[in-house]
Amino acid sequence: MKKLVVLLGLALAASAPAHAGFGMTAAMGSTNDGAALGILAPTLDYRASGILVQVHLLDLIGELPNKNLDIGLDVSGIALKRKIGPDVEGVFMPGGSVTIHSDTGFDSVGWQVLAQTRMGAEIKQGMGFGVYVVPVIGASNLLTGDVGLAYGGTLQVSAWFKK
User: Fold this and answer.
1) Beta-carbon-side half-sphere exposure of residue 51 (alpha carbons within 13 Å)
2) Torsion over CA: 69, 139, 91, 52 (sign)
3) For the residues of 60-103, what is the DSSP string, one character each?
4) What is the predicted pLDDT for the residue at 19?
5) Cα 154–155–160 angle (5° rounding)?
6) DSSP state at residue 10
7) How far apart are CA 41 and CA 39, in angstroms?
8) Are 41 and 72 in contact (CB under 8 A)?
9) How far apart are CA 18 and CA 94, in angstroms?
10) Could you tell me the pTM of the whole model?
11) In sequence order, what are the residues at sequence separation of 6 or more whose Cβ sits closer than 8 angstroms to the Cβ of residue 5?
12) Which helix (H) or strand (E) is 58 found in, with range?
């Protein structure tokens, strides 16, 4: 938990305050290793200078009463954007995701490391709103305990306030 807090603090400190904002992202989807099925708990998001950091805080809090840890962090950045309307931009955001699932004693640790690409449209007027398709591919040991290929994707909807 301390490592997650330190990592989040470093990400926030390294980000420039211009165009920054906090928000949330809701997602629906899964990967072949069964990491998430259906509607996922929203992430807490921080955006700054084209970089998006997503912390799976509600997943962590929701699993603590079951004596489990579900720690997740996604980072992506705008590599390409195009104006597709007066107030709408299309974005292409490559990035990555790291998730750790474990009991609180770390007797059974599962992990997932994914490359992801957020592709979608954003509206930015006072606050921001975006809809994205996010395919993912990587490695995981969640389903069987053995390391294997993980792939899948999500449909994501984000809303954030700008500073």
Assistant:
1) 14
2) positive
3) HHHHGGGTEEEEEEEEEE-SEEEE-SSSEEEEEEEEEEEEEEEE
4) 45
5) 115
6) H
7) 7
8) no
9) 21
10) 0.81
11) none
12) helix 57-63
Q: How far is it, in rounded angstroms, from Cα 73 to Cα 44?
A: 10
3-state secondary structure of 38: coil
Sign of torsion, CA 82 49 17 132?
Answer: positive
**Position of tokens 């390294």?**
14
Token pair, residue 86, equals 């007066």
Per-residue pLDDT of the chain in tens (163 residues, 90 and over written 9): 444 333 334 343 333 333 468 999 999 998 988 766 557 789 999 999 999 999 998 888 888 888 888 888 999 999 999 999 888 999 999 999 999 888 888 888 889 999 999 999 999 887 899 999 999 999 999 878 889 999 999 999 999 997 6
